[in-house]
From TrEMBL:
It comes from Cirrhinus mrigala. It comes from the Eukaryota. InterPro entries: P-loop_NTPase. This is Uncharacterized protein.
Length: 68
């Protein structure tokens, strides 16, 4: 998806998704921000796992860069 009327692809990444949601110093939560601007919901990502981190987010970012 694109942010507002720009042609710049936009993705919100929820890093450290293994932790509790932190207090935001903004009037909207990340999910509400995405809803308001008609973006996909934040993509969850964490490196704090026993297994190797998921590569899905990198695939999504690469795809968005290749096909804006």
């Amino acid at each position: 998806k694109h942010f507002l009327d720009s042609k710049t692809p936009c993705v919100i990444i929820a890093a450290k998704s293994d932790l509790h949601e932190a207090r935001q110093y903004y009037s909207l939560s990340p999910l509400d921000f995405c809803r308001k601007h008609k973006l996909h919901p934040p993509q969850l990502f964490t490196c704090n796992t026993a297994e190797a981190p998921s590569k899905d987010i990198y695939t999504k970012l690469t795809t968005m860069a290749m096909y804006p």
